Amino acid sequence: MNDSELNAHDRSVDPLCDAGSVDETPTLHLQVSGLEQIQAILPSPITPTVRMIYLVPSDREIRPDFQKAIMKAALHLQRWYCTDIGIGKSFWLRDPIVETVRTHHDAAWYAEHSTGSDYWFWENTVADGFALTGGQFYDPNFIWVYYIDAQNAPNKTGGGGAGGVAVLPRTDLLGLIGESNESVCRWVGGLGHELGHALGLPHPPPCDSGQLPQSDFQCQCLMYVGYVNYPQTYFLQIDRDRLAQSRFILPFTLTGQPFDCKSLFADSPLTTPKLFQIQVVKERFVVKLITEHQLQMAHDLISHPERRRILIGRLAAGDDGYNRDPLTKQSWSWHLVPETIQFVELATEVCDGLPSDIENNLPYWIDTVGRFCPWATIVEKEM
Ligand SMILES: [Zn+2]
């Protein structure tokens, strides 16, 4: 679906607001129901804002890349909401935008501590979040968004939004920093969807009941499956009208530059690319890093070798002018494409191997496998 098709339906664009970019990736759809409760909304002298809380379980590190990704996702959505609602209004964020809070439980507790309902991960996170931040359901002053660096059990609900509160699990944090098979934009859209629920928006009922197919215009909105196509999706007019009435949707003027949600770190290229020596068992090769995020990860892994990460990147022919084994002087006839290099926690077995494996079977590696992800990655030093 392109912009002109969207405009042909019912989207009105406010000239103050800019639209973002486009990406398409399908995924599962999760929701939370049964958590809604009706409470009076009290008048308040405080400007109502959306608070982005990054919860760090007791056995997790505070990660600057997660903090930055949450901030950029919130800012991207603030622009998108403004554009789509179309009346020069959006939600407001706090300063600082992301509040980092340590919890007293380890990451596994959130998935394992049963509350007796189907939503215990959600409920554990909300209970800790409320206790540590003073949050509450239907808070007249704040919408509470809790990103937690913990993972729900595979068959249990993780993310969801209701009653002025949204929860997003570790999957979403990894998605925002690009460590997912899906686009970063899909995870920004996922936040937008759960924030929509927290603001009181439902799924379109004919989509939830199956009366309409998922391909229907109504079901392709942000509040149904459209978040996977974020930012190329929309609110239904009925939801724009609801948002326009919300105490949390306030006059808003965009400042600063619009940016692409495809990579929330793409705005920080290095002025000078850096070369790093990578050890794999007894062999070595060299990669070129070109973004601040890559550089930060590489330095972090040199200082903290116990944080095992797997380097992964797309293979291309030629040494690109630097790829060799610095100890044996063996030169390699391949390299990793700098734009595609990431340091991930998990990778598929098929791309594991040694630098010499690639050298000895170059056509297979470049054309069939396509990527290299040595499981025994050690980032040795900057060159
Ligand atoms: Zn939903």
What report would you give on this structure?
With 383 residues, the chain is α+β, with helices and mostly antiparallel strands. The protein has two domains: 3-251, Collagenase (Catalytic Domain) (3-Layer(aba) Sandwich), CATH 3.40.390; 269-382, no CATH class. It has helices spanning 3-8, 64-85, 107-112, 120-133, 170-176, 184-198, 205-208, 237-245, 292-303, 355-360, 362-369; strands at 49-56, 89-91, 93-102, 142-148, 160-162, 165-168, 249-251, 269-280, 283-291, 310-317, 334-336, 342-344, 371-372, 377-382. A five-stranded mixed beta sheet has the order 3-1-4-6-5, with helices on both faces. A hairpin with a 2-residue loop joins strand 8 and strand 9 (283-291). Helix 2 (64-85) packs across helix 6 (184-198). It binds zinc ion. Residues 31, 193, 197, 203 line the site of zinc ion.
Main sheet specs: 5 strands, mixed
- For the record, the count of structural domains works out to 2
Low-confidence stretches: 1-44
Fraction in beta strands: 15-25%
Structural class: alpha+beta
Distance between the termini: 46 Å
H-E string: HEHEEHHEEEHHHHEEEHEEEHHEE
CATH H level, superfamily name of the largest domain: Collagenase (Catalytic Domain)
* Ligands present: zinc ion
| CATH architecture verdict of the largest domain | 3-Layer(aba) Sandwich
Radius of gyration over alpha carbons? 23 Å
Shape: elongated
- Mean pLDDT across residues: 86
Count of helices?
A: 11
Care to give the gist of this entry?
By secondary structure, this protein is α+β, with helices and mostly antiparallel strands.
What descriptors fit this protein?
4-stranded antiparallel beta sheet; 2 domains; binds zinc ion; alpha+beta; 383 residues; Collagenase (Catalytic Domain); disordered N terminus; single chain; 5-stranded mixed beta sheet
